[in-house]
Amino acid sequence: EAGVVQSPRYKIIEKKQPVAFWCNPISGHNTLYWYRQNLGQGPELLIRYENEEAVDDSQLPKDRFSAERLKGVDSTLKIQPAELGDSAVYLCASSLGDYSTYEQYFGPGTRLTVT
Amino acid sequence: DAKTTQPPSMDCAEGRAANLPCNHSTISGNEYVYWYRQIHSQGPQYIIHGLKNNETNEMASLIITEDRKSSTLILPHATLRDTAVYYCIVGISSNTGKLIFGQGTTLQVKP
Question: Chain B residue with minimal CA distance to A98?
Answer without folding.
Answer: B94
